Structure formats: C-alpha cells, structure tokens
Amino acid sequence: MIDLYYWATPNGHKITLFLEEAGLPYRLIPVNIGAGDQFQPDFLKIAPNNRIPAIVDTAPADGGAPLSLFESGAILLYLADKTGRFIPADLRGRNEALQWLFWQMGGLGPMAGQNHHFGTYAPEKLPYAIERYVKETARLYAVLDRHLADRDFIVDGQYSIADMACYPWIVPHERQQQRLEDFPHLKRWFDAIAARPATQRAYGRAAEVNPAGTPTVNEASRKVLFGQDATTIRR
C-alpha cells in the first residue's frame, strides 16, 4: 500500500497519474496547503520541505520498515523502479527519461509556477515579471514541441514518468497565457494523454479531497502560501 500525501496541484497529479496507470493500491491523505496542513509535525517528518506530494510505501522491496519520500520527481523514479514500469530498462532509454524528468523539475515546473504566481496570484501586477515568465514558458513549450515532432511520447515509443511529470504542468496552459495550437506536436501529445483512462481517473480523484473545487489560493491562504521565509522552518 502507498500512502499518498496529496493536494490537487500539478505536482500532486503527477503521482496519481502513475498510481492509476500502474494499478498500485494507494490511499489519498489530503494535505490542504491553503489551510497550512503542510506544517503539521507528522507531515514534516515525511516531507521536511513542507511541500506536497509525499509518499509512504508500507511494503518496500527490501522488506524493511515503511519508506517515506518527498519530491515528486524522486517519487516517480522510486515508483517506476519499484514496479519496473514506465521507465525504459535499457541504458539509453532510461537516461533519456531521466533527463526529461529533470528538465521538468528544474525548468518547466518552476518557470510555469512563477508564471502562475505573477500572472494570477501576485497582489501587484508587474509587467516585466509577467512577460519574463510567459516568454520563458513559451520557450519551454517550444522545446518540448520540437522534441515531440517525430515521436508519440517523450521517450520514443513508451509512455513514461517523463510524460507524467510534464503533462500536469501543461494542463493549466490558458492560465500560463499559452495556446496549444501554437505547438501542434505538443498538442497531439497532450490530447493523447488526456484521453487515457488512467489520466481521467487520476484527475477525478481531486474531487475527493476538494469536493467543492474551492481555490487553494484566496485572501486567507495567501500568507500561508506566499509569506514563508526562514522563520517558517525554524519555528
């Protein structure tokens, strides 16, 4: 059994995508990041960076005590190795998947996240910051679009953790001021993943933790989400 500490964010969706595709039994444990649940002591024991997602594998392959992990990329890689699925077994294929996983973790996710922040959530609209991150998001979309020109998935011929990492960050493309029609190879890839039954099941589970679809970011949650500094960790 996998315990998944989750909220309905792009990084949270990555892990439900994998678990639904692999058919691994798992339990969703909501962590309402807008309400500050990520600062609860029990959660911090699992995720010291006070971010979701995190998992606890109650039956790790070594037969030892339950194993906890934080960071969505590390979790995807762990689950792929645990199941032997969604990552190529050969040297070249595995490393192609990993380089695109790291591309998402170091580029697409952080840049799109800043796009969301300055374009949607920042109390003051700063034209320079908005333009900076909209343009960088577009550049990253173009990188992925070009890569997908001659293949169905990021790793040629195989749906993998690289696709699962990237897809949730493309879902909010309208908020990022991007038109998928401008990236035809990426759009084809995006539509194919959206149509997968496991994708639909994974996104359907978001309603279980937030049935009303209440926005995570509101006036009450802004300080919790955007007011953190070193004292947040030291308290």
Which key phrases capture this entry?
235 residues; alpha+beta; Glutaredoxin; Glutathione S-transferase Yfyf (Class Pi), Chain A, domain 2; Glutathione_S-Trfase_N
Please give a structural write-up.
With 235 residues, the protein is α+β, with helices and mostly antiparallel strands. It has two domains: 2-85 and 205-234, Glutaredoxin (3-Layer(aba) Sandwich), CATH 3.40.30; 91-199, Glutathione S-transferase Yfyf (Class Pi), Chain A, domain 2, CATH 1.20.1050. The protein is built from eleven helices and four strands; from the N terminus they run βαβαββααααααααα. Strands 2-1-3-4 form a four-stranded mixed sheet, with helices on one face. Helix 1 links the parallel strand 1 (2-6) and strand 2 (26-30). Helix 1 (10-22) runs parallel beside helix 3. The longest helix is centred in the middle third of the chain and has 31 residues, at 91-121. It is globular, with a radius of gyration of 18 Å. Belongs to the GST superfamily. Residues 90-216 form the GST C-terminal domain. This is Thiol:disulfide oxidoreductase. Residues 1-87 form the GST N-terminal domain. It holds the Pfam family GST_C.
